[in-house]
């Protein structure tokens, strides 16, 4: 599942982002070594969401994809894992990190971190259900405080999971703080399976420094990959001592064009203005680090023509794209720990 000769590069699962059109776009620009679906919600009435299933059945990446589940009921999670096993997946992942109150209040996602005994039951049941199929976990380091990782790590050690990804923040820290790398380092030292480091990787340097400080088996990248899909190619080159490919403004423009086409292609009821609004969600990330006028103008566009005129005005050149997002933006902050 992981490259044998260098650290692995994973695309982070992101709800409403890492769907089939996004995977098609990111794979066109090199892509990751391993993918995880956005989460399948699991409850008593749930069936695997057909839209998310398409990223498995039509996986365009030529790389393995793991199916992620979020829920708290052992019977329902086992039932869903058995259903998902019928599809071409590389593993089942359990989400132990989602910080959305609507999720954690139900003791699912990050909420489970307050229930170590429940995690233990879930991992035992899922291990049995998965059989030979890899079982992986994506976790935060605690709910309220990082000290909770003292209790969580022994649980992850006790159950024979195949991969542990750590988003090294507590649930309460959500997305904005620096990450606590020493817990990842500790997990790398103690876990019998590979450990993947996640959180705040925004360019090559931040990824390499996170790897250096933790000696993790790989990196998982989310928001930084929406902003720059070439980040995987750049890191792969750095890790194999070749020259990372430069990313120009025009390349970013071509990425936006592809995203627009792919996201439009999948909807049966294409409505131009609605689609432009949808594109703004990606542009929120892509504009970070660009001159502020780009974000300002993109917020105001309504039609496809206006949208691409603004993109062309700001990105229609062969200049290098900014390597870093701005440090004080809401979507990217705290990463200076790796600079
Ligand atoms: C829009 C968005 C949606 C997310 N959805 C999921 C999800 O479905 N499952 C999950 O495990 N994490 C989810 N995450 C968390 C990311 O996988 C990742 O852990 C987090 O963004 C930190 O990594 P980054 O700094 O590289 O973005 C989401 C994050 C964002 C920003």
What would you say about this model in short?
With 339 residues, this protein is an alpha/beta fold.
How do the helices and strands line up, and which of them pair or pack?
Layout (H helix, E strand, L loop, with lengths): L7 E4 L8 H9 L5 E3 L3 E2 L8 H8 L7 E6 L3 H11 L6 E6 L4 H4 L11 H15 L4 E8 L6 H10 L4 E8 L10 H10 L4 E4 L5 H11 L3 E4 L1 H5 L3 H9 L9 H17 L6 H15 L5 H9 L3 H12 L24
Parallel strand pairs: 1-2, 1-9, 2-4, 3-4, 4-5, 5-6, 6-7, 7-8, 8-9
Helix pairs in contact: 1-11, 3-5, 5-6, 11-12, 11-14
Bound molecules: flavin mononucleotide.
The site of flavin mononucleotide has 21 residues, from helix 9.
General description of the model:
- This protein is α/β, with parallel strands linked by helices.
- It has two domains: 8-239, Aldolase class I (TIM Barrel, Alpha-Beta Barrel), CATH 3.20.20; 249-315.
- 43% of the residues lie in helices and 13% in strands.
- It contains 14 helices and nine strands.
- It has helices at residues 20-28, 50-57, 74-84, 101-104, 116-130, 149-158, 181-190, 204-214, 223-227, 231-239, 249-265, 272-286, 292-300, 304-315; strands at 8-11, 34-36, 40-41, 65-70, 91-96, 135-142, 163-170, 195-198, 218-221.
- It has an eight-stranded parallel β-barrel with strand order 1-2-4-5-6-7-8-9, surrounded by six helices.
- α11 packs antiparallel against α14.
- The radius of gyration is 20 Å and the shape is globular.
- The model has no long low-confidence stretch (mean pLDDT 97).
- CATH class category of the largest domain: Alpha Beta
The assigned structural class equals: alpha/beta
- The portion of residues forming beta strands comes to 5-15%
CATH level-four homologous superfamily name of the largest domain: Aldolase class I
**Strand count, sense and closure of the main sheet?**
8 strands, parallel, barrel
The strand order across the widest sheet is: 1-2-4-5-6-7-8-9
Rg measurement, Å: 20 Å
CATH-assigned fold name of the largest domain: TIM Barrel
Heteromolecules bound: flavin mononucleotide
Instruction: Provide the residue-averaged pLDDT.
Output: 97
Report, as a whole number of angstroms, the end-to-end distance. 30 Å
Total helical elements: 14
| Number of domain modules | 2
- Quaternary organization: single chain
Q: Tell me the total number of β-strands.
A: 9
Low-confidence stretches: none
Shape descriptor reads: globular
SSE arrangement, N to C: EHEEHEHEHHEHEHEHEHHHHHH
Q: Helicity level, as a percent range? A: 40-55%
CATH architecture of the largest domain: Alpha-Beta Barrel
């Amino acid at each position: 599942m992981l490259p044998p000769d260098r650290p692995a590069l994973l695309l982070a699962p992101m709800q409403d982002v890492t769907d089939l059109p996004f995977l098609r776009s990111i794979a066109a620009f090199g892509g990751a070594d391993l993918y995880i679906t956005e989460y399948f919600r699991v409850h008593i009435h749930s069936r695997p969401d057909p839209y998310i299933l398409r990223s498995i059945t039509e996986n365009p990446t030529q790389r393995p994809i793991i199916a992620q589940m979020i829920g708290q009921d052992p019977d329902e999670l086992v039932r869903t894992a058995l259903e998902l096993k019928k599809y071409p997946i590389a593993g089942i992942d359990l989400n132990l990190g989602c910080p959305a109150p609507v999720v954690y209040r139900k003791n699912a996602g990050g909420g489970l971190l307050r229930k170590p005994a429940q995690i233990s039951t879930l991992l035992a049941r899922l291990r049995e259900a998965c059989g030979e199929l890899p079982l992986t976990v994506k976790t935060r380091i605690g709910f309220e405080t990082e000290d909770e990782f003292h209790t969580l790590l022994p649980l992850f050690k006790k159950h024979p999971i195949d991969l542990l990804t750590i988003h090294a923040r507590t649930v309460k820290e959500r997305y904005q703080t620096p990450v606590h790398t020493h817990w990842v380092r500790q997990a790398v030292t103690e876990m019998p399976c590979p450990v993947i480091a996640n959180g705040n990787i925004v360019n090559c340097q931040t990824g390499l420094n996170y790897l250096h400080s933790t000696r993790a088996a790989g990196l998982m990248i989310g928001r930084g990959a929406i902003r720059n899909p070439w980040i995987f190619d750049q890191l792969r080159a750095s890790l194999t001592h070749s020259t990372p490919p430069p990313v120009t403004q025009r390349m970013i423009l071509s990425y936006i064009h592809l995203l627009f086409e792919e996201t439009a292609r999948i909807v049966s009821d294409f409505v131009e203005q609605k689609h432009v609004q949808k594109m703004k969600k990606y542009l929120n990330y892509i504009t970070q680090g660009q001159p502020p006028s780009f974000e300002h103008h993109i917020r105001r566009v309504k039609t496809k023509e206006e949208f691409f005129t603004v993109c062309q005005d700001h990105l229609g050149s062969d200049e290098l794209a900014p390597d870093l997002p701005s440090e004080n933006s809401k979507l990217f902050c705290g990463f200076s720990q790796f600079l």
